[in-house]
Amino acid sequence: MGLQTDQPLKRAILPFGGIRTVKSALEAHGYQLDPQTEEIFTKYRKTHNDGVFDGYTTEMRNCRRSGIITGLPDDRANIEAIADLAAPMTNIERVEVLPFHKMGEYKWEQLGWNYALKNTPEPHPELVEATKNVFRSRGLFTT
Question: What is the pTM for the complete model shown?
Answer without folding.
Answer: 0.48
